[in-house]
Amino acid sequence: MHPIRFITLLACGLLTFNALGAENAAAPGKTVEDLSKTCAACHGADGNGTNAQYPRLAGQYHDYLSRALQEYKTGERKNAIMAGFVSTLSAADIDALSRYYAAMPSKLDDLSHHEQGD
Length: 118
Ligand code: HEC
Fold this sequence. Notes:
With 118 residues, this protein is mainly α.
């Protein structure tokens, strides 16, 4: 590849990366850890839920979590508890929280290593 083309591509890549980084920032003055303290009461500090009625968030796909949160916000997905918690979150907060939980070690499981009847 011609060196100029390579440098141009590299520069475009870096610009895109920076733009994404800025978009993902949490609310000013609040880190994603601050935001997640509210969520921990039900979803657990490790994202695995404090009890079975609260879904695990840890290790779930980022885009799944963010879609769910957006849908609670618009009312497309209805849940009285979650509607209250998402109402103050910005799009950037939702994105940051979704990435935060998606990156946590998951206890999500499938049955692949279970014996029959186990
Ligand atoms: C008082 C308990 C409580 C708190 C606090 C809470 N949630 Fe939830 N959350 C729930 C319940 C209950 C559900 C399941 C609702 C449903 O059936 O749609 C849920 C569902 C979700 C889902 C969808 C999960 C899935 O698998 O579909 C996400 C994502 C989520 N919560 C994120 C958060 C975040 C982020 C916070 C903090 C800003 C938070 N929750 C705070 C109780 C809570």
